[in-house]
Structures are given as structure tokens and as C-alpha cells.
Design goal:
By secondary structure, the protein is an alpha/beta fold. It has 7 helices and 8 strands. Helix 1 runs parallel beside helix 2. The chain binds iron/sulfur cluster (SF4). The site of iron/sulfur cluster has 15 residues, from helix 3.
Length: 180
């Protein structure tokens, strides 16, 4: 069972666990809401202080409750706080996806990952790396668009090409980098 956590339901996580036990789910995944179209619902993008405090305080309780119920609780919530892409004071690559994967949408547009085409901050679509109805996957993988993603990430010039939720650190490192 996957629950998307937002302002209107973040205080209901305990009840979600009760629901999962009652209906014999094995796993509860807590996922954070994306984008800004639902006004005020994204408590993670700008770190709603009351919500962050509540989640920080309650997460250990939810973990214990899930364990007592025999449930696996897989929390993808960026709590406490938004993780930045720095480790030990050193800057690291924001993302490895342009070297690891591609994602294709319904219209054949290609990005390194599904997060790259999120409407994001201002409901703007990011430019993408090609289209499978116009070029082969191999051509796109080695083409200008993917090269541009790689160059901009290495040179830390990601604004305008990357999802603002990635730039803010809201999309967790383990999602932006496979095998981290
Ligand atoms: S940082 Fe986000 S938007 Fe940029 S390439 Fe990686 S997954 Fe895509």
C-alpha cells in the first residue's frame, strides 16, 4: 500500500497503519507529494515547520507501530529536513541518472528519469533529451540532449534543465543515484 503524504493527511499516518493491518497489507510505503499545483499541500518543498516537527517526532512511533503490526514501513519522506547534495562538506554530483537510465513518456519524449519531466516549480516542462518517434534509443542516449544533461550536472548548471524538486534536495539522493 502506497500513501502520498501531504498537508491534508500527514497526521493520518497512524490510521493508515491501522488500515493496513486490518486489510492485511504487508508493506506500507510513504511517499512525498510532488509539485506545487495543489496549493499548500507540498509540506516538504518549503518545509512546513509544524508538519516537519510532527513527522520528526512521530516517525519513530510509526516505525515501532508498523513493526508491532508485522508491517514493513518503507518511508521515503525527507524527514528530518531536506537533504542537500553535499557530503562531508564536499560538493558531489547532484544526480547520476543521465549516466544510468532513460525514461520515456506517453508521447515518446525522453528524459534521464521520470522526475525530469515533473511539472515542478512553475508548471514548466523541462526540455527533455529527444523523442523515440524521431530518433533511436541509441541515438538519444549518445545525443545532444543527454550530453547536455551530463554536462550541466557536472558543471553544476542545472537550473532550467532539472526539476526544482531535485535542485532543492527534495528528491532523495537514493532516487537520483542508483546504488547509493
Ligand atoms: S537531477 Fe532530477 S531533473 Fe536533473 S537529471 Fe537528475 S532526475 Fe533528472
Amino acid at each position: 500500500m502506497t500513501a502520498v503524504i501531504m498537508k491534508s493527511n500527514y497526521r493520518e499516518i497512524g490510521k493508515m497503519l491501522d488500515f493496513a493491518r486490518e486489510y492485511r497489507f504487508d508493506l506500507v510505503k510513504l511517499y512525498y507529494i510532488h509539485g506545487t499545483r495543489a496549493a499548500g499541500e507540498n509540506i516538504f518543498l518549503e518545509e512546513d515547520p509544524a508538519a516537519m516537527e510532527y513527522l520528526c517526532e512521530m516517525m519513530p512511533f510509526f516505525k515501532k507501530k508498523a513493526a508491532d503490526y508485522g508491517l514493513v514501513l518503507d518511508s521515503r519522506l525527507p524527514v528530518p529536513g531536506i537533504k542537500k547534495y553535499r557530503k562531508n562538506g564536499k560538493k558531489q554530483l547532484l544526480c547520476h541518472r543521465p549516466w544510468q537510465s532513460i525514461s520515456i513518456d506517453y508521447w515518446g519524449n525522453v528524459w534521464p528519469d521520470v522526475f525530469c519531466w515533473d511539472d515542478g516549480w512553475k508548471s514548466e516542462r523541462m526540455p527533455g533529451a529527444g523523442n523515440v518517434f524521431k530518433s533511436s534509443i541509441g541515438q538519444i542516449w549518445n545525443g545532444k540532449g543527454m550530453q547536455e544533461y551530463r554536462r550541466r550536472i557536472v558543471q553544476r548548471e542545472c537550473r532550467g534543465i532539472c526539476n526544482p524538486e531535485c535542485l532543492s534536495g527534495l528528491i532523495p539522493e537514493k532516487t537520483r543515484k542508483l546504488n547509493v
